[in-house]
Amino acid sequence: MSVPDDKDADAREKLLLMGSATKAFDPQPEDLKTFDPAAESLARIGALWFRAIPPCLFTLHAARAGLLGEVSDEAWIRFHRRLRTALQIANRCTEGLGSRLEATEIVPDAMAIEKRAREIIHGLLKYELFLSGSPIQVRRDQKAIDPAMLAAAGELQALGDMFCSVPPQADPARVDTIAHAPDFSWIRAGRHTYVFERPQQAHVIRILHAEWERAGRRDGHGVMEVTLGELVDAATDKFRVGKLFRGHPVLDGALRRHGKSVWALHLNQVASTPPTPG
Q: Can you give the pLDDT at residue 152?
């Protein structure tokens, strides 16, 4: 009866600890068609897409070391597909990552993080392709996972740990970050939040937001001023949007006039614009 190797015992323990990280994690190649890194929060990129790589790679290591017992061809291919897809998605997440991290003003060495993450991911993608081929093939006769690759995956996780706790309010503007209160007492576009204390202001924004939605969430599609006055039940026929919002930061920002009598929202444009310093 052979005595278990201490290294094998350590590896088994590590595998058990990391198993939960990959149990429900199974990104599919078709996900790449619709994946938009701009729609991912910095916290999710760091906590999910960067942290997922080490357990995915370690699963391959465990399979090659015989720690998983008999592995079917289907499972072998699934392990490689999961790692490859996770790496491709993580690579997408590095697009503009440095600028986003820099804009938080709380993550140091932002551009260096992007550069190093991209280097690691490209190296791991090249290594995974060497191991499995394209398309993925079952190559059980390949040597064990290079320890340097395992270390690189660990470094990628450490990079993700540097920004996985960035709070939503510090996350730079993303074009999809458009939200509002149920009663439209506030509306947010990227890192710009507008608060409406007057009910009539909120009512106007509600009407224009509905028009923006009807136009396919396209900026500049608005409503005539006279129609707005009727819809908000203004007590005077001299209803003026400019007067209602005079001095409000939304005016000429997310709320703009077209021509002499049409008002519309420009939420996408504002969402993609960083706030003015100070």
A: 97
Tokens representing residue 153 in the block: 């995956």
CA angle 79, 84, 89 (to 5 degrees): 130
0.70 surpassed by pTM:
no
- Beta carbons of 6 and 14 less than 8 angstroms apart: no
**Burial degree of 176 (CB within 10 A; 0-12, 13-18, 19+):** middle
| Residue 121 reports pLDDT greater than 90 | yes
- Strands 262-265 and 223-224 come out as antiparallel
Structure tokens at 184: 């439209």
Residue 111 Cα distances to 8, 27, 102, 107, 108, angstroms: 38, 27, 7, 10, 9
Q: What is the pLDDT of residue 12?
A: 47
pLDDT at 138 over 70: yes
